[in-house]
Amino acid sequence: MEIEIESSQLKNETYEYTRPPSIDLKTSYNEFFVNYLCKNQSCLIKNVGGNWNSTQLWIENDSPNFAYLRQTYGDSLVSVTNCNSQSTYAQQPLKWNFRDYLHYWENHVDGNEQVLYVKDWHLRNENPADEFYDVPLHFASDWLNEYLVENLLDDYRFVYMGVKGTWSPFHVDVMTSYSWSTNIYGQKRWVLFPPGEEEYFYDSLGNLPSDISNLKNGRKHFEIVQNPGDAIFVPSNWHHQVWNVTDTISINHNWINGCNLHTIWKAMEKNLTEVKREIRDCSDMENFLDHSQLMLKASFGFNFGEYFDFMLYIATKRIKSLQNEPVKLSGKYLLGRNHAEYDLRSIRCTVVDLLNHCDTLELSCFKSLEKGPEFLLQKIDDSL
After folding, report:
1. Alpha-carbon distance 137 to 133, whole Å?
2. What's the confidence (pLDDT) of residue 19?
3. What gap in Å lies between CA 174 and CA 83, rounded to an integer?
4. Fold classified for 8-255
């Protein structure tokens, strides 16, 4: 199946954020691209995952199939967070064998003081041959996992499992990336704030609250109930908090593509400014700029050199696709020509900003590059 768009041109427009609508799984890729990805607008996609192996095998008689889960994944090591209070949530997650969590889950009584949540489980990366879900068509343009998985680096594909009462704090997704989350089992309640609304929640120290249950301050927000088979799209810079109304199982991705590439670059620039401010007393040290990049990587997830490597990798594949070398996404979708051109235009825009940043050419990682930003810009221009 091909993912394609009608126009490969970039748009620089602002939009009014509205309540996330519910849309059907049959919505075309182009419609989703134009109305949600490009506009950074949240939505809920219905009827997702009905034929997934996880839906068929992990659930039995409207309950988790503990026997199957134990037999198949019992020896996996998972991170378990105690959601009993804000203080316990902030503690380092526990490391358990998954079978021990299943034992806890089967014997959990509502009201028990330990409310435990399996989070950020890289199950697909641990078991590449286990196709327990398929990436929905609308989320197929996922550069982040395309790059990481194909280069055997890591991934941002997760499974979450939690009893009733587990929750995730008020936050924005890693690197201000997109995220999607599909409920396999149970019900979640989301509170989402469009970009900019979070500014009204910072305290005097510049920190956001972890729980905004009673702190909405009259700000623009949207409350969404997510049921089994619902996939929620959370765009870049949408802060949110999530509660599990019942026991739940969900599959989630963080992702980046041509629609939010530049947004993430701007967030990285802002983060670097904050890093430099924190260590300004060391500004006279040798290699201060390189040290700032190390700290940027630790705090943000990317630094300038890695972000360029990421863009170079994706651009090289897109250029080859224009030379009739097919690009397959998420294991099953073929990239259309207009889409490849759009991706390259997006990369070009961000590489220009990277090249114009005052730090870039002073960084040791760029001084040693044979194929640097100028090279990539020329390759893109030659292909378009």
Report:
1. 12
2. 97
3. 20
4. Jelly Rolls (2.60.120)
| Contact by Cβ (8 Å): 112, 118 | no
Contact criterion met (CB below 8 Å) for 233 and 36: yes
Domain coordinates in residue numbering, the chain:
8-255, 260-382
- Tens digit of each residue's pLDDT (9 = 90 or more) over 61-94: 999 999 999 999 999 999 999 998 777 677 789 9
Q: How many CA atoms lie within 13 A of 15 on its CB side?
A: 15
DSSP β-ladder status, 43-46 and 22-24: parallel
Structure tokens at 168: 């995730």
Location of structure tokens 């870049």: 236
Residue 303 CA to residue 89 CA, distance in Å, equals 28
Given this model, what pLDDT does residue 33 score? 97
Q: Is 362 helix (H, G, I), strand (E, B) or coil?
A: helix
In Å, how far from its chain's centre is CA 274? Answer: 22
The count of other CB atoms within 10 Å of the CB of residue 169 is 16
Q: pTM score > 0.85 for this model?
A: yes
pLDDT band at 14 (very low <50, low <70, confident <90, very high): confident
Tokens 């599959």 belong to 251
The pLDDT of 218-225, averaged and rounded, is 94
CB of 86 closer than 8 Å to CB of 210? yes
The per-residue pLDDT of the chain, averaged, comes to 95
Q: Which pLDDT score, from 0 to 100, does residue 110 have?
A: 80
The token pair that represents 316 in the structure block = 């090289």
Q: Do residues 257 and 141 lie in contact, with contact meaning Cβ atoms separated by under 8 Å?
A: yes
Provide the CB-side half-sphere exposure for 249 (13 A, CA). Answer: 20
Give the type of residue at 166.
T
Provide mean pLDDT across the span 6-26.
Answer: 90
Distance CA 74, CA 12 (A): 49
